[in-house]
């Protein structure tokens, strides 16, 4: 499923109000009913696609930004696996006791009221996020190796590149693993907030789509990287 079809499905799901069972973990964010998406299959697909996340813990208060693997078969709401640097203070939260929130972020952008047929109207910002809440458990060393292999394989496949983690020398892998800590989190609560204008009239929704089709794009990672190199080095790059 491409991103356009995926986002269309998000909006449809919010309109239909498909439901998941309500877990006991308290909510982590405010979601108006019009923007609540509870279709588990949709949320799972979103989490698998937008896998660069914010891992948030309270003790210590810390946010780490990492890619993760989401295993939708690992329990009712799935299991998330990731890793951080061993010197990261957040490692202290991997005790299986305190809760964390992992935030998956999708596309987002400014919406001008000029795209609406309904007036008066004000500007807004449309976006899609999924919050997953649970307790972080430390990963075993064999589990960490298997996770790293799976993580690398996923993104190498996505990019169409051919790096093979298994071909690295054991001495190199061992030194790398010594400096990282893996975790897994069985998700206790899953919250989807998709603010895509789905509560507006059909004509307004069509206006949003037309507006977004020609909206100014954010800088790409290539352009940001090139600009950063040039600023740091004081000369043009490539």
Molecular structure report:
This protein has 238 residues and is of the alpha+beta class. The protein has a single domain, classed as Roll (Pnp Oxidase, Chain A). The two termini are 35 Å apart. Strands 1, 2, 3, 4, 5, 6, 7 and 8 form an 8-stranded antiparallel β-sheet that branches. The protein has helices at 3-16, 40-49, 141-159, 170-177, 202-213, 221-233, and strands at residues 36-37, 52-58, 61-67, 69-71, 79-85, 99-111, 124-138, 180-195.
Give the structure's gist in a few sentences.
The protein is of the alpha+beta class and 238 residues long. It has helices spanning 3-16, 40-49, 141-159, 170-177, 202-213, 221-233, and strands at 36-37, 52-58, 61-67, 69-71, 79-85, 99-111, 124-138, 180-195.
């Amino acid at each position: 499923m491409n991103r356009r079809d995926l986002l269309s499905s998000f909006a449809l799901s919010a309109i239909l109000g498909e439901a998941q069972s309500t877990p006991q973990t308290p909510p982590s964010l405010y979601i108006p009913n019009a923007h609540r998406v509870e279709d588990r299959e949709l949320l799972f697909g979103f989490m698998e696609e937008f896998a660069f996340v914010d891992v948030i813990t309270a003790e210590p208060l810390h946010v780490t930004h990492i890619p993760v693997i989401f295993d939708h078969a690992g329990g009712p709401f799935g299991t998330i696996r990731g890793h951080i640097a061993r010197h990261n203070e957040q490692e202290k939260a991997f005790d299986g006791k305190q809760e964390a929130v992992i935030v998956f972020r999708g596309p987002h952008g400014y919406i001008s009221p000029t795209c609406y047929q309904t007036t008066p109207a004000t500007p807004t910002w449309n976006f899609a996020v999924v919050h997953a809440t649970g307790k972080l458990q430390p990963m075993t060393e064999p589990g960490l190796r298997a996770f790293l292999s799976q993580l690398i394989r996923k993104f190498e496949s996505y990019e169409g590149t051919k790096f093979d983690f298994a071909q690295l020398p054991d001495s190199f892998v061992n030194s790398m693993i010594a400096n990282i800590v893996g975790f897994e989190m069985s998700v206790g609560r899953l919250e989807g907030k998709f603010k895509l204008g789905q509560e507006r009239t059909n004509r307004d929704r069509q206006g949003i789509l037309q507006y977004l089709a020609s909206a100014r794009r954010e800088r790409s990672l290539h352009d940001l990287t090139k600009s950063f190199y040039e600023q740091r080095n004081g000369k043009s790059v490539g």
